[in-house]
Design brief:
Elements (H helix, E strand, L loop, with lengths): L2 E4 L4 E4 L3 E2 L12 H13 L4 E4 L6 H11 L7 E6 L29 H6 L3 H4 L2 H15 L6 E4 L12 H13 L6 E4 L17 E7 L11 H7 L3 E5 L28 H14 L14 H8 L12 H10 L6 E3 L5 H9 L8 H8 L10
Helix pairs in contact: 1-2, 1-11, 5-6, 8-9
């Protein structure tokens, strides 16, 4: 399985990691026993990058158990998020009981839109909260150190805030104490370029950025800046939260606990023509491509070449991401063993042919889909 170097963290990781966002969510068709097998199966198949967060149900517990039972602490990079304090209501355990910082206004006094417009460091990542979250994550994982910790909600303006020296001091102290081996930042989805200053900071080893066939904004500024600074780029949502999996169409109904339940029928329908067009580059037509009249019309005129290297759209989409210059690894959210095996297979697949890569690059697939 192909690996790449996290230069500033001084370790290698597989180019396809495991995102655990959906683990333990009780999603329709996902049995608890299946969920419990995904993380250990990923490690046994050779995956050395696992992304976890206290805000994702069961991710810390399942990952910690798997790493211990397989004695994989030294070979698996567990990347743990420190979510913004605005996500506090979804955190588990002692984090929810942590005393709020005096710098943080009451969340009830602000609208959700106001918090989104001004995610200051003082509000999102007060130093005491960061310290508490790291320590609680270590206890939940039952480990001595986090291989990589993500500072969530990042904005470059944080570097100019009054609280920044204290926050930076907390980050560096956690490294000196051996509780965090390396720090990364999570670039904002709506403006990945707002992490360009961060990657020039000496304490930043990696940046997490949303990147897929449906969202290439990170390639404009962030990827080149990170490459210049030897900062690793971990692409999140490489399958666009399942939209590039090939099975989501307007007839899909998500269970109440699935975050995608708010996706409208028109939004789901807009995926279908894109899947139908992408079917020309793979051997298996994605099931959802025929779920609308627009999709079926495109499929009727489908012309495939005779040199196809990818079986599915998901495989194609992952290959596109991990072969993008500047991307170190991708972390799709995977909930079942079959999906896991298919995704990790992309880490061993041959490169996409130049002709195919050019065809994917020349079109803005899924334009506006995330809007």
């Amino acid at each position: 399985m192909l690996t790449r170097r996290l230069v500033r963290a001084d370790r290698d990781v597989t180019v396809v990691g495991l995102g655990t966002r959906g683990l333990g969510g009780g999603l329709r068709g996902i049995e608890p026993e299946d969920v419990a097998r995904v993380v250990p199966a990923a490690i046994e198949l050779g995956c050395t990058l696992v992304d976890v967060s206290p805000a994702w149900s069961a991710s810390l517990r399942v990952t910690g158990e798997a790493v211990r039972e397989l004695r994989a602490r030294d070979r698996v990079c567990v990347a743990c998020h420190v979510p913004p304090l605005s996500a506090r209501s979804s955190l588990e355990g002692a984090i929810a009981a942590a005393a709020p910082s005096p710098l943080v206004p009451s969340e009830r006094s602000e609208s959700k839109d106001a918090r989104r417009r001004a995610p200051t460091a003082a509000r999102a990542q007060p130093p005491g909260y960061v310290q508490q979250t790291v320590e609680d994550a270590l206890r939940a994982l039952r480990t001595e150190a986090l291989s990589l910790a993500w500072l969530g909600g990042w904005r470059d303006a944080w570097l100019d805030e009054q609280v920044w020296p204290e926050l930076l001091g907390t980050l560096l102290r956690l490294v000196r104490e051996g509780k965090v081996l390396a720090w990364g930042v999570v670039a904002p989805d709506d403006a990945p370029g707002d992490a360009v200053r961060a990657v020039a900071e000496p304490w930043v080893a990696a940046v997490s950025a949303r990147y897929s066939l449906f969202d290439r904004a990170a390639a404009d500024e962030l990827l080149p800046a990170a490459a210049k600074a030897d900062v690793a780029v971990i692409a999140r949502e490489p399958l666009a939260r399942g939209a590039l999996g090939g099975e989501l169409g307007p007839t899909v109904r998500f269970p109440p606990e699935d975050e995608r339940r708010t996706w409208s029928e028109p939004r789901l329908a807009s995926i279908v023509p894109e899947l139908a067009r992408l079917a020309a580059f793979v051997t298996h037509t994605p099931p959802a491509a025929a779920s609308t009249v627009a999709g079926r019309t495109l499929l009727e005129n489908l012309r495939r070449g005779d040199d196809l290297t990818c079986a599915t759209v998901a495989e194609l989409a992952l290959g596109f991401v991990i072969e993008t210059p500047g991307v170190t690894a991708a972390i799709p959210g995977l909930r079942t063993i079959p999906h896991l095996a298919a995704a990790l297979g992309a880490a061993s697949a041959p490169p996409l042919p130049a002709r195919l890569r050019a065809a994917l690059d020349e079109r803005r697939w899924g334009e506006g889909w995330y809007a």
